Amino acid sequence: MKKNNNAEGALYFDYKIDNDIASFDDKAYVVSALSDRAYKYYGKGQYDKAISDYSKIIEIYSTNVSDSFYVNAHKYLSWILSTCPDEKYRDGKRAIDLVKKTLAIRECENIGPKDARGLSCGELFSVQAAAYAETGKFEDAVNSMEKSLFMLNGGGYESLSHYYAEYLQSYRDQKPWREKKGGVPDFGGV
């Protein structure tokens, strides 16, 4: 019987990431693998593992905060902490802290929708809205969601509006957004 070398290789790689991350020379490769793995964990309902992997990315890139891996890990982790279908993994306060840091890094507060960062900032305002809603700050959630829609619609990303309109209505109805259990994470429409 032939062994499945791909499965063994994947298990070894997971072991190395979990137990000997310092042995990898190419941090971008490791971080990319962690990000992919976190996404898959989330889709399988293994939220604790997804949170752990995104947290590892933030730790690895803590000295290079402008890196897109670092920014995306903050965004995705904040989304999970705000919208996870399993209550025990939600932490709105931490989610707000993460997304505020990312908005500041991307300098989103004072840009217009035609700015090259418009899509990224529009997504981040959507994640901020989810975090505010998770903490019961629905007025702030609506304001952030409206900023998100302004950035996206004004920047030519109208195709994302249907996602965002659902979030906005949820926040107007004083309901935090919840992802569906066992589904692929939406991460704010992105």
Task: Write up this protein.
There is one protein chain. The chain is mostly helical and 190 residues long. It has one domain (5-172): Serine Threonine Protein Phosphatase 5, Tetratricopeptide repeat, CATH 1.25.40.10. It is built from eight helices and no strands. The chain has helices at residues 5-19, 27-43, 47-60, 68-83, 92-105, 118-134, 138-154, 161-172. Helix 2 runs antiparallel to helix 3 (47-60), helix 3 runs antiparallel to helix 4 (68-83) and helix 7 runs antiparallel to helix 8. The longest helix is centred in the first third of the chain and has 17 residues, at 27-43.
Quickly describe the structure:
With 190 residues, this protein is mainly alpha-helical. The chain is built from 8 helices and no strands. The termini are far apart.
Count every helix, treating DSSP H or I runs of 4 or more residues as helices.
8
Determine the N-to-C terminus distance: 43 Å
Task: Please tell me the CATH architecture by its name.
Answer: Alpha Horseshoe
Number of strands: 0
The CATH superfamily appears as Tetratricopeptide repeat domain
Mean pLDDT: 82
- Please tell me how large the radius of gyration is: 17 Å
The CATH topology label is Serine Threonine Protein Phosphatase 5, Tetratricopeptide repeat
Categorize the overall geometry: globular
CATH class: Mainly Alpha
- N to C succession of SSEs: HHHHHHHH
The helix content, as a percent range, equals 55-70%
Largest sheet entry: none
Number of structurally distinct domains: 1
What percentage of the residues does DSSP assign to strands (E)? under 5%
Low-confidence stretches: 1-7
Structural class call reads mainly alpha
